[in-house]
Amino acid sequence: MKKVLVVDDSLSVARQLEKIIAESGDFTCVGHAKNGAEAIKMNHTENPEIICMDMNMPGMDGLTALRSLSALDKDVKVVMVTSLGGVGDKFTEALKLGAKNVISKPFEADNVLRILREL
After folding, report:
1. CB 4 within 8 A of CB 30
2. All domains of the chain, ordered by start, with CATH?
3. Is 116 exposed, middle or buried (0-12, 13-18, 19+ CB in 10 A)?
4. DSSP 3-state assignment of 26?
5. How far apart are CA 10 and CA 1, in angstroms?
6. Percentage above 90 pLDDT, the chain
C-alpha cells in the first residue's frame, strides 16, 4: 500500500479525499496537513510516497510548498488539488514546479484513484 499525505485547509475536503484513499485498497492515508508548512514537516516525519496538496491555503499555499518540497527532494510525488475555477495559469505553474498531476474538486473517486495509480 502506498502512503499518501493529504494537505488541505478544509477539513471536509480532506475527509472526502481520505475516504477515497482509504477505500481504494491500494493506498493508506498517513496524515492530514492544514497548509504548506505543515506538509513540509509531515513529508519529513511520515515519508509519504504521494502528497495530495490543495493549491489555495492560508499561510503557505500549495505552490510555495511544492517549490520547497521539490528543492528538498527531487523525487517527491505531489498531486495538486484545486477547484475548477481559475486553474489555467496555476495548473501550468504547478506542472513546471514538479507536480505530477492535478485533481479537481469536487472529487470523482475513479478519477482520483486513476491519477494516484499512475504515479
Report:
1. yes
2. 2-50+59-111 (3.40.50.2300)
3. buried
4. coil
5. 25
6. 85
Task: For residue range 47-65, list pLDDT tens digits in order.
Answer: 999 999 999 999 999 999 9
Of 19-23, 41-45, 85-89, 110-114, minimum mean pLDDT range: 85-89
- Of 101, 111, 13, 109, nearest to 57 by C-alpha is 13
Could you tell me the maximum CA-CA distance found in the chain, to the nearest angstrom?
Answer: 34
As given in the structure block, the three cell numbers for residue 96 are 513546471
pLDDT at 85 over 70: no
Q: Is the pTM of this model over 0.70?
A: yes
In this structure, are residues 18 and 6 in contact, taking their beta carbons and an 8 Å threshold?
yes
42-51 burial, b if ≥16 CB within 10 A, otherwise e?
bbeebebbbb
Is residue 118 classed exposed, middle or buried when 0-12, 13-18 and 19+ CB atoms within 10 A define those classes? exposed
Query: Do residues 33 and 7 lie in contact, with contact meaning Cβ atoms separated by under 8 Å?
Result: yes
